[in-house]
Every structure is written in structure tokens, then in C-alpha cells.
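haha ok so turns out i had the wrong file open the whole time. this is the CORRECT one, sorry everyone. sequence first:
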Amino acid sequence: MISKSEPSIVTSKTKYFFTELMGAPLSAKIGILIVVIYIFVALFAPLLAPFGESELVGKKYQPWNNTFLLGTDNLGRDMLSRILFGARNTVGIAFLTTLVAFLIGGICGIFAAVVGRWIDQVLCRIVDILMAIPLLIFAMLLLSIFGTSIPSLILIIGILDATRVFRISRAVSLNIVVMDFIEAAKLQGESLFRITIREILPNIFSPLAAEFGLRFCYVFLTISALSFLGLGIQPPTADWGSMVRATADLITFGDYTPLIPAAAIAALTVGVNFIVDWFLHIHSRLQDEL
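then structure:
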């Protein structure tokens, strides 16, 4: 049975959110607008694109005109359509990869902090070994071995990036497990799982949420870099990184079409960082403007 106080709690939280949103700095509002536009494009790409994702519709490297607003690529595919479909592929895969990284790294980090002892030491040493190798080089090596399919890409980047998530989740959890209310919960006989869910997670949500935004940016850029190098999202799937590589020769002839997918990558990264900065200011109760 739902208590009478719950609707008022939900209403107050909703009102608090909209109050903070209305008072958000201009940079945060710009970031939110950018992210909303990208989500809209990713969801409705098939309706917005004038041609199919891999459809050959003209000659290669056709200039901008009324039919092909951004010209065509090296195979005669419409650049505008591929940029729109690229939003769905690049952003969606980056989001899933970040989610995998947080599920693995977050759970292991919190578990290491709560249990401690030899389990914490073993997990930390494994993470140290993985972090000793540069992520991009390690990812290229593993993708060369296991293949460049989308599931392989998500799992490999997610596992490698989980080491960074493990560090931050373990660090913030260690600051909480030594608090008096955690000791009181243990003395009351509560299980470690219940303590983790009810006491630790709510207190580390803010830094983890901010880290999720930052990790998404890093993963997004990593996947784009791998696609540019030919080891990321593979053709004919539209991807901004591979699109920059495929049309890079056009810059030599004064055609700046390759800069459009590059600008799309940069704009999303900046927008997410604006939102993360604003979120950190809200939850740390800082009043300085971004």
C-alpha cells in the first residue's frame, strides 16, 4: 500500500529539479539542448535521413548541392544521411559500453571497499596491471585478436574502462564505509547487501553520476578514434570516426566535409561536460557560476 507521503516526496523532488533547471547557468542549458538534439536525431534517424544508411545514391565525392546537402563520400553514399545514422550508432554503442564499464567496475569497486581484506588487495592488483597498459593500445591489440564486431567492441572497451570506474567507486565507497552510521547498521545485524543498497549507494550516487558523464565522453572518443584507425565500428555501419577517415582526402581540395562528423564528436563531448559540471555544482552545493 502506498503511503500518503510518497506523492508529496515525488512532487517536491520534481519541483526541486525544475527549480535547479530554471536557475542553471547558460553553459548547462546549452549542454542539455545539445544532448536532447543528439538523442532526438539518434531515435528518429530513419525518418530524418533523406537516403538509406548504406545506399549508393550518386558518384563518389560529389559536392554539396540541392540533392546531396553535404555531398557524397568515397563510395557515393549521402553524407547527411550517414551523419544522422552515425548519431544512432556512435552514441548508442558508446552509451552501452559505458553502462557495461559501470556495471563491472562499479560493482567490483563497491564490493572491494565493503568486504576489504584480501579480496580488495587482489582486485586492486588486477586493476593496476590492466591500467599499466595504455587503453587505446590495449584495445587495438584485443580487437585485433577477438575481432571488431560490435559485441566485441562493447565488451573489450567496457572491461578496460571498468578499471577507471573501479578506482573512483572504491575510493568514494571507502569514505562511506568508515562512517558511524555504517557501523551502527552492522551492529543492528543488517547484511552487507542491505547496507550497500540502502546506505552506501545513495551517498556515492552524485560522484558516480558525474563520473558516468565523463566516462561516456572518454568512451565516445575512444570508439571514434578506433573507428578512425579501422578497428572500431566497421563499414557499412555509419560511424563518425570512420567517416572522418573515409573523407579525409577532401580537405586537400578545400572541401571541409570531413570536419562535420569531427564537429559532431566535439559538440557532444562539450555538451556532456557542461552537464557534468553543472551536476557537480548542484550536489556539492557550490554557488559559483560555470
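The two ends are 44 Å apart (CA to CA).
again sry for the mixup
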